From TrEMBL:
The keyword Transferase applies. InterPro entries: Glutathione-S-Trfase_C-like (IPR010987), Glutathione-S-Trfase_C_sf (IPR036282), Glutathione_S-Trfase (IPR040079), Glutathione_S-Trfase_N (IPR004045), GST_C_Tau (IPR045074), Omega/Tau-like (IPR045073), Thioredoxin-like_sf (IPR036249). It comes from Hibiscus trionum (Flower of an hour). Belongs to the GST superfamily. Tau family. It comes from the Eukaryota. Is involved in the conjugation of reduced glutathione to a wide number of exogenous and endogenous hydrophobic electrophiles. Its EC number is 2.5.1.18. This is Glutathione S-transferase. It is found in: Cytoplasm, Cytosol. It is an enzyme of class 2 (transferase). Residues 5-84 form the GST N-terminal domain.
Length: 223
């Protein structure tokens, strides 16, 4: 009975990748132990459980580690069937995975570049981020959530960083792409998403995020 075995999440509460896993477990009503990690001095536990990427989150179920947040979300959805996160239809599942990869790869990469640069380089990265965000806006269209009108799903959890972390990345990075006038559907989605109790309860404080992003930006500028 896989579902009844001991369940741990190694992560940090400031990590957008960790929090999407906590959201999934929360929505499913699955109990777990949170094992906070120090990413500056990585524990031998983390390095042993995720020797390939050495990153959080790692889900440990019955002693077996699973790494990479989107893979963890799928594992959770397949293991605990209540409150499905992915659609049932294979074609719908494929579309949802396509957009999740787009958000984590194309959009997040442009955001990372905008955060790590200044001047002309930052303007170019911000423009490519705006183009990617426009496509997510179109995908969302008039729906309340990326997962549909009724409730949030896998894609909302993957896109969750746009709803909360992005504002602090922009503030500390000195750029602004998310604009309610340009992206009204996303703006409405953000407001709806962060109000959901299982989402709101795992959001880190603004000051924690400001401190982390300031430290990251200073470290980038020293390079
Ligand atoms: N693709 C990974 C990304 C995870 C990731 O970047 N985690 C960060 C924290 S937000 C981390 O562990 N960073 C430590 C490092 O890069 O050394 C996922 O989806 O889980």
């Amino acid at each position: 009975m896989a579902g009844a075995e001991e369940l741990k999440v190694l992560g940090t509460r400031q990590s957008m990748f960790t929090v999407r896993v906590l959201w999934a477990l929360e929505l499913k009503g699955v109990e777990y132990e949170f094992v906070e990690q120090d990413l500056v001095n990585k524990s031998s536990l983390l390095l042993g459980l995720n020797p390939v990427h050495k990153k959080v989150p790692v889900l440990v179920h019955g002693g077996k580690p699973i790494a990479e947040s989107k893979i963890i979300l799928e594992y959770i959805d397949e293991t605990w069937k209540q409150r499905p996160l992915l659609p049932e239809d294979p074609l719908e599942r494929a579309y949802v995975r396509f957009w999740a990869a787009f958000i984590d790869d194309k959009l997040m990469e442009a955001c990372r570049k905008a955060f790590a640069t200044t001047g002309e380089d930052q303007a170019v990265a911000a423009e490519s981020m705006a183009e990617a965000l426009k496509l997510v806006e179109q995908e969302l269209g008039g729906k309340k959530y990326l997962g549909g009108d009724e409730e949030i799903g896998y894609l909302d959890l993957v896109a969750g960083w746009i709803a909360y972390w992005l504002q602090f990345v922009e503030e500390v990075g000195g750029f602004k792409v998310m604009d309610s006038a340009k992206f009204p559907c996303l703006d409405a989605w953000i407001k709806n998403f962060v109000q959901i109790p299982s989402v709101a309860q795992s959001l880190p404080s603004p000051d924690e995020l400001r401190n982390i992003f300031c430290a990251m930006r200073m470290a980038m500028q020293r390079k």
